[in-house]
Amino acid sequence: MVGLMSKIFGGWVVAIMTGMPLYTSMALASLLFISINGMPVSTLPQKMAGSMNSFPIVAAPLFILMGNILGAAKITDRIVTFASALIGWIRGGYAHASILTSMIFAGMVGSAVADAAGSGAIEIRAMRKAGYRPETAASITAAAATIGPIIPPSLPMVIYGVAADVSIGKLFMGGLIPGVLMGVTLMLMVGVVARREGMSRVSFAGFRVLGRAFVDCFFAVMTPVVILGGMFSGFFTPTEAAAVACLYALFLGFVVYRTLEWKHIGPILIDTAETTGVVMVLVMAAASLGWCISISRLPQALTPMLLATIESPIIFLLLVNLFLLVVGCFMEALAAMLILIPILAPAAISYGIDPVQFGVIVVLNLIIGTVTPPVGVVLFVVTRMAEISFETLARAILPWLIPLMTVLLAITLWPPLTTWLPQFIARS
Length: 428
Description:
The chain is mainly alpha-helical. Helix content is 79%, strand content 0%.
């Protein structure tokens, strides 16, 4: 059965290369496996529907809804103003402010594309007005957007937790320190580039302006505090946190800032339904293929081979990093995650690797893929806002991958960066 699954898996890859939609190719591969093995065809829809019978998966559409509400309410403008007032006065300040904005926004939307689309236009416009080169402004914005799915809440972490049966709350906590490190290392990179490119610096606007900007965005900045505080205290689960976050976003839009109107609700719900549909159909198709992989015992066959050829867990993780970075260049992150988790996660457990550490490593690898050509979806989003060619941005982003790779290497070699905080919270 392993040989059969390997052939079907190869056929599925060929189907993708011919341009067939990813979810269609996965479902057809699953159907072929089921048919050849004489199973009822009804097994396929049962497995696809069964993958949706999961309480944690409810968090995915709710976090998507929250991001759309915050975007419609124009919360980002206030955060950008506060970040600029806080650190915009140092050399390369607008670039630093862009990164800080992404770190704050990451605690709200949990998606690289949503981060880039939500705050990117404002950030790029501010940097270009300050004299930054268009490609520099665009590459900083794209690189900073990768923080979105790492700092909790995180849609990819939810999907990974459901697929690998790992605590979503622990995955959220495991991504917090790496997410902050990504922001810090990007800011260090800005410090180097700012001197080389002669980026401008402006005078400090004063504590009165800073205080006014903070007050103006206080309730927006409190969004991550509400979400994480509720989970830390045990007041609600990560799934319930998504519902609380939606209610809080509506409260901000209708009551606090009054930038949201009832006429916005229809488009918000339609956009959420469309995005959720794309995500869920991928989850269902990948779940059926994952089930076929599981019963074919392909992971059980591959794990002994890996253990026989690779003795060190570190070497295994480094090879996984290399493999996922290449995969991320050609495949959408969520789809790659759903396909590869059933194969890689059992092998990682066999090496004694902490599931939380491995989950954060997988997510970070594939999120870096969103800013690497040729299929870097964040690059496509940012090129439209910056009005530059994809090829130009693809070249400009390369130096900004260094800080992201540095953090990836750090969490690979030193597990406490991802495991200490979840363990500390569990003991508290």
